[in-house]
Amino acid sequence: MTRTHGSWTGGTLTARSFLKPHHVARAMFHPAWIPESVDPSVEQLKRIRIIAGAVASLGVYTFVEGGFAFTELLENALTASAVLLFLTPLTVGVMLFVWRRTGTVRRLREPLLNSLKLLLLFIGSVVATVVLLQLANSMGGPAILPIGFAALWMVGFVGAGAFRISGNFFGTAVVHRCLPPLLATVTTWLMALPDLITGDLHGLSLTMGIVFILGAPMTVTAIALLEMGRLKRRYGIRLGTHPAAQPPIPGPPPPVPPTAPHVPPQGNPYAPHAPAPGYSYPPPMPPQGHPYAPHTPPPGHPYAPPNPYGHGNPYHPGPGAS
């Protein structure tokens, strides 16, 4: 369990944000107190669960009478809101009764109240959107412009909010990491039960009706079980264990400090410098003089060859020679 703190939106909303309803929906329906996903693979499974449930659910309305049943979609939105208002507290209450064996419920009061606020905010937004759309359809004249604009803004706001809610399920992950997939499974099956009991196939054939009616709950259930299975295997998080008794979730790895690239010394490469430790330069050589200057060997040089003819020119005639 993660203790909630801070503001609801985290200071991300500005006046310009209201020009884009999906930005407002992200700030309102995914508050700052909702914990981040513990694993990228679990987050990916959550997104697949959201997309699969939405495609399977909206597919029914696409095939009804060969077009998009907008009126039926509004009616089902109100029905889904009533189901959420009843089912979500009931499911969480059952889990609180199960968790009493391993911990106290008093510690969960603050996150539970925040999740309840998020639930009421979403249901109120859905009801307000339906009312505005009905007013826009029934009114005429200049008054339809502001009401129609407000209705369209609320449609985008609720649509983006529904996507956020399908992932975090009213922020119940702050209570227990396994609550969002559990609530998603229970809700989709309860939404499909009336059609299964009454046999209402929404104007589809028997095969297509079964595919679309059972497609959403079966897909969401399979992905939710896989999601909870990974939480159990990798992090030891079990649905039947009190949140306070769960093993601590490892935090993200610490950031690696940036290292500057190696730069060689920038001094004069020809300047004399001290040798490296443990190394000494050889002694300097004595001066050798100019290599091209005429050299006279010193007296008594051992390598000077003696002249066998004495001194002077041996071919010069001596005295008395004729």
Helix/strand layout:
Elements (H helix, E strand, L loop, with lengths): L20 H9 L10 H24 L6 H30 L9 H30 L5 H25 L10 H20 L7 H30 L87
Helix pairs in contact: 1-5, 2-7, 3-4, 3-6, 4-5, 6-7
In short:
By secondary structure, the protein is mainly alpha-helical. 52% of the residues lie in helices and 0% in strands. It contains 7 helices and no strands.
Can you describe what's shown?
It comes from Streptomyces viridiviolaceus. Keywords: Membrane, Transmembrane, Transmembrane helix. This is Integral membrane protein. It is a single chain. With 322 residues, the chain is mainly α. The protein contains seven helices and no strands. Helix 6 packs antiparallel against helix 7. The longest helix has 30 residues, at 70-99. The radius of gyration is 44 Å and the shape is extended.
Defining key terms:
single chain; mainly alpha; 322 residues; disordered N terminus
Helix content: 40-55%
Major sheet: none
How far is the N terminus from the C terminus? 135 Å
Number of strands: 0
Estimated radius of gyration: 44 Å
Order of helices and strands: HHHHHHH
Report low-confidence residues grouped into runs of 5 or more: 1-6
- What is the mean predicted local confidence, pLDDT? 76
Gross morphology: extended
What is the oligomer described by this structure? single chain
- Specify the structural class: mainly alpha
Percent range for β-strand residues: under 5%
Counted by DSSP, the helix tally is 7
